[in-house]
Amino acid sequence: MLTPTLRRTLRLPVLGALLLGGVLTASLARIFLGSLWYQQSIGSKLVTAWMQQICWTLGIQVQTHGIPILKTALLVANHISWLDIIALRSVHNTVFLAKSEIRDWPVLGFLAALSGTQFICRNRPRATRRAMAKLTNLLRDGRNVTLFPEGTTLDGHTVGPFHSALFQSAIDSKCPIQPLGLCYTHQGRIDPLVPFIGDDPFLSHLWRILGRKHIQLDIYSTPPISPTATSRIELAQSARQCLLRVIPPTDTTTTDWRRPNLRQMRIGQTDVIK
Protein backbone atom coordinates (compact mmCIF):
# COMPACT_ATOMS: atom_id res chain seq x y z
CA MET A 1 0.00 0.00 0.00
CA LEU A 2 1.39 3.37 -1.06
CA THR A 3 2.13 5.93 1.61
CA PRO A 4 1.34 9.65 1.03
CA THR A 5 5.06 10.34 0.62
CA LEU A 6 5.44 7.65 -2.04
CA ARG A 7 2.33 8.88 -3.87
CA ARG A 8 3.78 12.38 -4.00
CA THR A 9 7.09 11.00 -5.24
CA LEU A 10 5.35 9.16 -8.07
CA ARG A 11 2.80 11.80 -8.98
CA LEU A 12 4.86 14.96 -8.87
CA PRO A 13 7.08 14.26 -11.91
CA VAL A 14 4.07 13.04 -13.91
CA LEU A 15 2.12 16.19 -13.06
CA GLY A 16 5.12 18.34 -13.93
CA ALA A 17 5.44 16.64 -17.31
CA LEU A 18 1.72 17.13 -17.96
CA LEU A 19 1.86 20.82 -17.09
CA LEU A 20 4.91 21.46 -19.24
CA GLY A 21 3.40 19.42 -22.06
CA GLY A 22 0.20 21.43 -21.73
CA VAL A 23 2.08 24.72 -21.99
CA LEU A 24 3.90 23.51 -25.12
CA THR A 25 0.77 22.06 -26.73
CA ALA A 26 -1.36 25.12 -26.00
CA SER A 27 1.35 27.47 -27.27
CA LEU A 28 1.77 25.53 -30.53
CA ALA A 29 -1.99 25.23 -30.99
CA ARG A 30 -2.33 28.98 -30.56
CA ILE A 31 0.33 29.56 -33.23
CA PHE A 32 -1.05 27.12 -35.82
CA LEU A 33 -4.80 27.22 -35.07
CA GLY A 34 -5.21 30.80 -33.85
CA SER A 35 -6.10 32.40 -30.52
CA LEU A 36 -9.46 30.58 -30.44
CA TRP A 37 -7.89 27.17 -31.00
CA TYR A 38 -9.75 25.70 -28.01
CA GLN A 39 -13.09 26.34 -29.77
CA GLN A 40 -12.16 24.10 -32.70
CA SER A 41 -12.92 20.40 -32.61
CA ILE A 42 -9.31 19.23 -32.37
CA GLY A 43 -8.48 21.92 -29.81
CA SER A 44 -11.44 21.00 -27.63
CA LYS A 45 -10.43 17.34 -27.70
CA LEU A 46 -6.86 18.24 -26.73
CA VAL A 47 -8.05 20.25 -23.72
CA THR A 48 -10.42 17.46 -22.63
CA ALA A 49 -7.70 14.81 -22.89
CA TRP A 50 -5.26 17.00 -20.97
CA MET A 51 -7.75 17.63 -18.15
CA GLN A 52 -8.57 13.92 -17.95
CA GLN A 53 -4.89 13.07 -17.61
CA ILE A 54 -4.48 15.59 -14.79
CA CYS A 55 -7.52 14.11 -13.02
CA TRP A 56 -6.02 10.64 -13.36
CA THR A 57 -2.67 11.82 -12.00
CA LEU A 58 -4.28 13.51 -8.99
CA GLY A 59 -6.57 10.56 -8.35
CA ILE A 60 -9.77 12.52 -9.05
CA GLN A 61 -12.75 10.27 -9.83
CA VAL A 62 -15.64 12.19 -11.39
CA GLN A 63 -19.21 10.90 -11.58
CA THR A 64 -22.10 12.83 -13.12
CA HIS A 65 -25.73 12.44 -12.07
CA GLY A 66 -29.08 13.82 -13.15
CA ILE A 67 -30.14 15.72 -16.24
CA PRO A 68 -27.73 15.67 -19.22
CA ILE A 69 -25.77 18.92 -19.45
CA LEU A 70 -26.97 21.09 -22.33
CA LYS A 71 -24.62 21.94 -25.20
CA THR A 72 -25.57 25.62 -25.02
CA ALA A 73 -26.35 26.98 -21.58
CA LEU A 74 -25.08 29.16 -18.77
CA LEU A 75 -23.83 26.61 -16.25
CA VAL A 76 -23.62 27.81 -12.66
CA ALA A 77 -21.84 25.78 -9.99
CA ASN A 78 -20.87 26.05 -6.35
CA HIS A 79 -17.16 26.70 -5.94
CA ILE A 80 -14.98 24.63 -3.61
CA SER A 81 -11.48 24.35 -5.02
CA TRP A 82 -9.17 25.04 -7.95
CA LEU A 83 -9.85 21.40 -8.81
CA ASP A 84 -13.39 22.37 -9.88
CA ILE A 85 -12.29 23.75 -13.26
CA ILE A 86 -10.07 20.75 -14.04
CA ALA A 87 -12.73 18.20 -13.08
CA LEU A 88 -15.63 19.94 -14.85
CA ARG A 89 -13.62 20.47 -18.04
CA SER A 90 -12.59 16.79 -18.04
CA VAL A 91 -16.22 15.72 -18.54
CA HIS A 92 -17.75 18.65 -20.45
CA ASN A 93 -16.66 21.11 -23.12
CA THR A 94 -17.21 24.53 -21.60
CA VAL A 95 -15.61 27.96 -21.27
CA PHE A 96 -15.05 29.17 -17.70
CA LEU A 97 -15.41 32.55 -16.13
CA ALA A 98 -13.02 32.71 -13.17
CA LYS A 99 -11.79 35.28 -10.68
CA SER A 100 -8.77 37.26 -11.85
CA GLU A 101 -6.52 35.84 -9.09
CA ILE A 102 -6.40 32.48 -10.89
CA ARG A 103 -4.47 34.07 -13.75
CA ASP A 104 -1.54 34.57 -11.32
CA TRP A 105 -1.40 30.94 -10.15
CA PRO A 106 1.82 29.13 -11.14
CA VAL A 107 1.51 27.42 -14.56
CA LEU A 108 -2.20 26.67 -14.10
CA GLY A 109 -3.13 30.32 -14.53
CA PHE A 110 -1.18 30.52 -17.78
CA LEU A 111 -2.77 27.34 -19.09
CA ALA A 112 -6.24 28.50 -18.06
CA ALA A 113 -5.76 31.69 -20.06
CA LEU A 114 -4.47 29.82 -23.10
CA SER A 115 -7.42 27.42 -23.05
CA GLY A 116 -10.02 30.19 -23.13
CA THR A 117 -10.87 30.91 -19.49
CA GLN A 118 -12.31 34.39 -19.13
CA PHE A 119 -11.13 36.29 -16.05
CA ILE A 120 -13.04 38.93 -14.11
CA CYS A 121 -12.25 41.37 -11.32
CA ARG A 122 -15.56 41.62 -9.47
CA ASN A 123 -14.59 44.82 -7.67
CA ARG A 124 -14.57 46.74 -10.95
CA PRO A 125 -18.03 47.45 -12.42
CA ARG A 126 -16.57 48.19 -15.86
CA ALA A 127 -14.82 44.80 -15.88
CA THR A 128 -18.09 43.12 -14.93
CA ARG A 129 -19.87 44.79 -17.85
CA ARG A 130 -17.16 43.66 -20.25
CA ALA A 131 -17.34 40.11 -18.92
CA MET A 132 -21.12 40.09 -19.29
CA ALA A 133 -20.81 41.22 -22.92
CA LYS A 134 -18.33 38.39 -23.59
CA LEU A 135 -20.59 35.84 -21.93
CA THR A 136 -23.61 37.01 -23.91
CA ASN A 137 -21.71 36.73 -27.20
CA LEU A 138 -20.40 33.27 -26.35
CA LEU A 139 -23.91 32.05 -25.50
CA ARG A 140 -25.35 33.57 -28.67
CA ASP A 141 -22.65 31.75 -30.64
CA GLY A 142 -23.88 28.44 -29.19
CA ARG A 143 -21.07 28.00 -26.66
CA ASN A 144 -21.39 26.54 -23.20
CA VAL A 145 -20.19 28.84 -20.40
CA THR A 146 -19.57 27.99 -16.73
CA LEU A 147 -19.36 30.50 -13.89
CA PHE A 148 -19.11 30.30 -10.11
CA PRO A 149 -21.56 32.98 -8.92
CA GLU A 150 -20.55 32.76 -5.25
CA GLY A 151 -17.42 34.68 -6.22
CA THR A 152 -15.31 32.69 -3.74
CA THR A 153 -14.63 29.14 -2.56
CA LEU A 154 -16.45 27.54 0.38
CA ASP A 155 -16.05 24.30 2.34
CA GLY A 156 -18.63 22.27 0.38
CA HIS A 157 -21.21 22.06 3.18
CA THR A 158 -23.42 24.81 1.80
CA VAL A 159 -23.88 27.24 -1.09
CA GLY A 160 -23.05 30.90 -0.56
CA PRO A 161 -25.10 33.87 -1.83
CA PHE A 162 -24.99 34.29 -5.61
CA HIS A 163 -23.87 37.46 -7.36
CA SER A 164 -26.64 38.10 -9.86
CA ALA A 165 -25.05 40.55 -12.34
CA LEU A 166 -23.75 37.96 -14.81
CA PHE A 167 -27.09 36.15 -14.95
CA GLN A 168 -28.17 39.00 -17.21
CA SER A 169 -26.17 37.36 -20.01
CA ALA A 170 -28.61 34.43 -20.00
CA ILE A 171 -31.56 36.82 -20.28
CA ASP A 172 -29.93 38.81 -23.09
CA SER A 173 -28.94 35.69 -25.05
CA LYS A 174 -32.19 33.84 -24.23
CA CYS A 175 -30.15 30.81 -23.14
CA PRO A 176 -31.20 28.51 -20.29
CA ILE A 177 -29.36 28.33 -16.98
CA GLN A 178 -28.34 24.91 -15.68
CA PRO A 179 -27.18 24.63 -12.05
CA LEU A 180 -24.46 22.06 -11.28
CA GLY A 181 -23.93 20.88 -7.71
CA LEU A 182 -20.35 19.85 -6.88
CA CYS A 183 -19.82 17.51 -3.96
CA TYR A 184 -16.40 16.12 -2.95
CA THR A 185 -16.63 13.21 -0.54
CA HIS A 186 -14.26 11.04 1.46
CA GLN A 187 -15.39 7.96 3.38
CA GLY A 188 -19.04 8.97 2.99
CA ARG A 189 -18.69 12.56 4.20
CA ILE A 190 -17.85 15.94 2.75
CA ASP A 191 -14.10 15.90 2.01
CA PRO A 192 -12.30 18.34 4.36
CA LEU A 193 -9.05 18.23 2.35
CA VAL A 194 -10.30 19.50 -1.02
CA PRO A 195 -11.67 22.99 -0.15
CA PHE A 196 -9.21 25.72 -1.10
CA ILE A 197 -10.29 28.58 1.11
CA GLY A 198 -8.89 31.46 3.12
CA ASP A 199 -5.15 32.12 2.96
CA ASP A 200 -4.18 28.52 2.22
CA PRO A 201 -1.09 28.68 -0.07
CA PHE A 202 -1.67 27.00 -3.43
CA LEU A 203 1.49 24.85 -3.35
CA SER A 204 0.75 23.63 0.19
CA HIS A 205 -2.75 22.62 -0.87
CA LEU A 206 -1.42 20.87 -3.97
CA TRP A 207 1.07 18.97 -1.78
CA ARG A 208 -1.75 17.64 0.39
CA ILE A 209 -3.81 16.67 -2.66
CA LEU A 210 -0.87 14.74 -4.12
CA GLY A 211 -0.72 12.60 -0.96
CA ARG A 212 -4.38 11.53 -1.05
CA LYS A 213 -5.12 8.10 -2.55
CA HIS A 214 -8.15 9.32 -4.49
CA ILE A 215 -10.68 12.15 -4.54
CA GLN A 216 -14.35 11.53 -5.28
CA LEU A 217 -16.33 14.26 -7.02
CA ASP A 218 -20.04 13.91 -7.74
CA ILE A 219 -21.54 16.44 -10.16
CA TYR A 220 -25.31 16.80 -9.83
CA SER A 221 -26.81 18.33 -12.96
CA THR A 222 -30.24 19.83 -12.23
CA PRO A 223 -33.01 20.76 -14.70
CA PRO A 224 -32.28 23.85 -16.80
CA ILE A 225 -34.09 27.07 -15.89
CA SER A 226 -35.69 29.28 -18.53
CA PRO A 227 -34.48 32.92 -18.39
CA THR A 228 -37.75 34.33 -19.73
CA ALA A 229 -40.22 36.42 -17.72
CA THR A 230 -37.96 36.86 -14.71
CA SER A 231 -35.17 39.10 -13.42
CA ARG A 232 -31.51 38.26 -12.97
CA ILE A 233 -31.94 38.42 -9.18
CA GLU A 234 -34.76 35.86 -9.29
CA LEU A 235 -32.70 33.65 -11.61
CA ALA A 236 -29.75 33.74 -9.21
CA GLN A 237 -31.99 32.89 -6.25
CA SER A 238 -33.64 30.02 -8.14
CA ALA A 239 -30.30 28.58 -9.26
CA ARG A 240 -28.96 28.72 -5.71
CA GLN A 241 -32.05 26.95 -4.36
CA CYS A 242 -31.50 24.17 -6.91
CA LEU A 243 -27.98 23.61 -5.61
CA LEU A 244 -29.01 23.74 -1.95
CA ARG A 245 -31.28 20.78 -2.65
CA VAL A 246 -28.44 18.60 -3.95
CA ILE A 247 -25.69 19.56 -1.47
CA PRO A 248 -25.72 17.33 1.66
CA PRO A 249 -26.46 19.11 4.95
CA THR A 250 -23.58 19.68 7.38
CA ASP A 251 -22.27 16.52 9.14
CA THR A 252 -24.55 14.29 7.08
CA THR A 253 -23.24 10.96 5.86
CA THR A 254 -23.62 11.34 2.09
CA THR A 255 -24.14 7.62 1.51
CA ASP A 256 -27.20 7.72 3.78
CA TRP A 257 -28.60 11.04 2.57
CA ARG A 258 -31.48 10.66 0.16
CA ARG A 259 -31.09 13.04 -2.78
CA PRO A 260 -34.15 14.57 -4.49
CA ASN A 261 -35.43 13.37 -7.85
CA LEU A 262 -33.52 15.75 -10.13
CA ARG A 263 -36.04 15.35 -12.94
CA GLN A 264 -38.92 16.55 -10.75
CA MET A 265 -37.26 19.59 -9.19
CA ARG A 266 -39.20 22.86 -9.27
CA ILE A 267 -37.96 25.99 -7.54
CA GLY A 268 -40.42 28.78 -6.73
CA GLN A 269 -42.19 30.30 -9.72
CA THR A 270 -39.26 30.01 -12.13
CA ASP A 271 -39.95 27.86 -15.18
CA VAL A 272 -37.93 24.66 -15.33
CA ILE A 273 -37.33 23.21 -18.79
CA LYS A 274 -38.16 19.54 -19.03
Describe the protein in words.
The protein has 274 residues and is α/β, with parallel strands linked by helices. The chain has helices spanning 4-33, 41-58, 83-91, 108-114, 125-140, 168-173, 202-211, 232-244; strands at 60-66, 74-77, 95-99, 118-120, 145-147, 177-186, 189-190, 215-221. It has a single domain (4-264), classed as Tetrapyrrole methylase, N-terminal domain (Cobalt-precorrin-4 Transmethylase, domain 1, 3-Layer(aba) Sandwich), CATH 3.40.1010. Strands 1, 2, 3, 4, 5, 6, 7 and 8 form an eight-stranded mixed beta sheet that branches. The longest helix has 30 residues, at 4-33. The chain is globular, with a radius of gyration of 18 Å. Residues 266-272 have low confidence and may be disordered.
Labels describing this entry:
Cobalt-precorrin-4 Transmethylase, domain 1, disordered C terminus, 8-stranded mixed sheet, 40% helix, alpha/beta
Secondary structure: elements and pairs:
Blueprint: H1 4-33, H2 41-58, E1 60-66, E2 74-77, H3 83-91, E3 95-99, H4 108-114, E4 118-120, H5 125-140, E5 145-147, H6 168-173, E6 177-186, E7 189-190, H7 202-211, E8 215-221, H8 232-244
Parallel strand pairs: 1-8, 2-5, 2-6, 3-4, 3-5
Antiparallel strand pairs: 6-7, 6-8
Estimated share of beta-strand residues: 5-15%
Spatial extent as radius of gyration: 18 Å
Q: Tell me the span between the first and last alpha carbons.
A: 47 Å
Query: Helix share of residues?
Result: 25-40%
User: How is the main sheet built?
Assistant: 8 strands, mixed
How many strands?
8
Give the assembly state of these chains: single chain
Helix count, DSSP H or I runs of 4 or more residues: 8
The rough form would be described as globular
Would you list the SSEs in sequence order as H and E? HHEEHEHEHEHEEHEH
CATH architecture: 3-Layer(aba) Sandwich
CATH uppermost class: Alpha Beta
CATH superfamily: Tetrapyrrole methylase, N-terminal domain
Low-confidence stretches: 266-272
